[in-house]
Design brief:
This protein starts with a strand and ends with a strand. It is globular. It contains 1 helix and 6 strands. Strands 1, 2, 3, 4, 5 and 6 form a 6-stranded mixed beta sheet that branches. The protein is mostly beta strands and 92 residues long.
Amino acid sequence: MTTTEPIWTTRRDYLAEPGMVLTIRYDAIGETETFLLGRRGSEGAELKVYSMASPLGRAIAGARVGEQRIYSIPDGTHLLVTLVNAVPYAAR
């Protein structure tokens, strides 16, 4: 049986792309959230998973650490988020 765990690193130049563990900050309230940007095989992840097709996934894809993005939630509200960290997520 294999488990999937995040690989933490101090390197901070990764892009937000599928298979990455991302930490974002909701700029209006200062709260952070860490999640896996979805990919196949992430069903067993112990983190929240956002797909690339989700509003947040579409907005944050391609961002670098420190970049801000705006995304719309289903009620039409626009949220400003900043990518705080991005690290690979690897199966072991």
